[in-house]
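Hi all, posting the design record for the shared folder.

TITLE: backbone redesign
STEP: 1 of 1
STRUCTURE INPUT:
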């Protein structure tokens, strides 16, 4: 029997998979990530939809109601973006465009996470303003937004650069320098 040629691994990757298999795996992993994000945005969205019907909502300030509407819009946009890969997949199904699908779905996910970060920060602002006042609300909402953006956008870049400096085979970069 002739030996089957296996594709060479990509830099930093030892999977030996075909381009098609890599795209399939990337899409499956992305769908798993989207399931987590969608659950969070759906819970937030449901909470936001019920808030105006709660006793006392009419007593909130005009600023709180404005931030609430902007937050509701951000949650709507986040929901649309995090679900968008499904519609995109339906439109390109069996057209040999898996690369386009993975790229678009990744872009939708990143934009959806940004909208979700804004929605979460806005919801925190409204609740905190009612409970603690405007100063606390502004500070905590800004801090929450900064933390979300750091962990969702900048931390992966930081760890990627760190790994590039130390090399993919350096165990200290993979385990945070703990040696095991």
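Okay, here is what came back for every position:
SEQUENCE:
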């Amino acid at each position: 029997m002739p030996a089957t040629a296996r594709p060479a691994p990509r830099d930093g990757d030892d999977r030996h998979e075909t381009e098609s298999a890599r795209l399939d795996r990337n899409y499956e992993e992305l769908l798993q990530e989207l399931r987590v994000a969608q659950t969070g945005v759906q819970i937030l969205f449901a909470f936001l939809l019920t808030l105006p019907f709660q006793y006392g909502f009419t007593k909130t300030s005009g600023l709180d109601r404005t931030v609430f509407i902007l937050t509701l819009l951000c949650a709507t946009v986040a929901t649309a973006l995090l679900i968008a890969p499904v519609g995109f997949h339906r439109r390109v199904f069996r057209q040999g465009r898996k690369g386009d699908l993975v790229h678009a779905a990744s872009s939708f996910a990143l934009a959806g996470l940004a909208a979700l970060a804004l929605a979460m920060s806005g919801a925190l602002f409204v609740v905190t303003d009612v409970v603690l006042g405007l100063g606390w609300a502004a500070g905590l909402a800004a801090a929450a937004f900064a933390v979300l953006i750091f962990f969702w956008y900048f931390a992966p870049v930081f760890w990627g650069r760190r790994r590039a400096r130390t090399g993919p085979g350096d165990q200290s970069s993979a385990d945070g320098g703990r040696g095991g």
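COMMENT: Confidence is low (pLDDT under 50) at residues 1-6.
Let me know if anyone wants the other runs.
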